[in-house]
Amino acid sequence: MKITKKIRNVLSTALIVTMMSAMLTGCSKGSTADASTVLNFGCTNFSESLDPSAMPNAAWAVSRYGIGESLFKFDDKMEADYNLCDEYSVNEDNTEWKFHIRENLKFSNGKEVNASSVVKSIEYMYEQEKSGKGSTAPSQYMIYDSIKADDESRTVTIKTSKPYADLTKALAHPFFVILDMESDLANNPVGTGPYVIDKYDVGVSVAMKANEDYWKEEVPYEKLNISFIEDSTTKAMALQNGDIDVAENINTANDLKKLQDSKDFNVSETVGVRTGFAYINQKGILGNDDLRKAILMAIDDDTLCNTTVGGLYTPGASVLPSTLDYGADKLKDATPYDEKEAIKILDDAKIVDTDGDGYRELDGKNIELNFLTYDSRNLPDFAEGVSSQLEKIGIKVNVKKTDADTEWNMLVAGEYDLLNTNWMTVQDGDPYGYLDNWYGKSNANYCGYQNDEYDKIYEALSTEMNEEKRKDMIEKLQQILIDDAAVMIHGYYNSNMSSNKSVTGANISVADYYWITTAIKPAK
User: pTM of the prediction?
Assistant: First the structure.
């Protein structure tokens, strides 16, 4: 056996804030709790459920809120380090992996975490995916032949039919968070994280308390109050008013600059590995190649990124950010901004306005695109900006803003023409799972894209172990998507976390899975 001992390390804003302030029990006027023992955190609500199998956002929430943890944890170089697992071994062909579970590990309800509970938690995710009860797809990152627990040796053995370059990275993903399967997963999942749910007010707040059985270190706060605040300006105002101590992702440029310029606040930012993009549903009218190419050519990415969203995104054409080493400088944009050329493409394809209403038609029907969006990282701003720009070439776009859960469900159901989102592109330290979005045989291909060459290269990528060859293959996959006008790229986002001076250690991680950790502590 080859053993690895160590892994590389809307109401008015004022009214909303007033209501939120009253809701935060740790800060209420009648509270007797010492403010230094209470952390108030403001963030966007990404999911109504906390069952990690229900949808990807739910799995991320369980990790972000400090409820659950995985066997491994990413550092800021996207390398997996030990977490609930403290040692592992792998055979020579990288198809049999054995993981040792830490001694004396407990769930936050006091129950022992043994090898069997780890296996049950992982198996549950796959069972939900297979049955269709959940839309989270752990198979994007790992497909196994068998998984077995040995409680006496505290080991979990996973066998796979194909080799994996580094399975520890897959197991660091929030899809593999380890939870007590007997807990109420939707409303009160029980994990091994530093905080425990006390009360979950769906869509409003989560009241939490310290996990007395936390294995790693002393939990800094007795209580944690999470308030869901959708509007970025409201979030910034809540931080400035002292209603919250920490806020994730202030995404209005003016509000962020005020915090950056103030001596009263700390702003942590990280180089982006996130891409803001829109799925293009090719099962409908956007299956027309000329229409898709004209649409992408009519979008002024520079204006959207640098003006519409105030520079919070960097424009680009590839599905992977230019900060990652996957050949961004070698890729050629097949649809650069050119409004006149976009109009010519449509005219030449006979996609024209015949009834004089100002909008073009295809196959005798008006083109009326439904663009779904939700309030996260400037996505509605992009949707509205795209709608305005496409209006100029005679394409009507109806923007519908919804919540994250509804948008995801409509994506899965294919009930959209355009739908934007924001993905961390190397969720397991590698873009393979992200590129699965456009693999023709994937359950996660919700846009109906099909290209035989893409599929062939993608399948070969799954077993290629050579890093340089992998980079070359990933570069080719990106160029195919660009050439086919398969996806609408908004740009590359830099994440941030802001905090007042009452706390220290509120830093945004590159992985973006870890918002509330024991690193956030009262300032001395």
Answer: 0.79
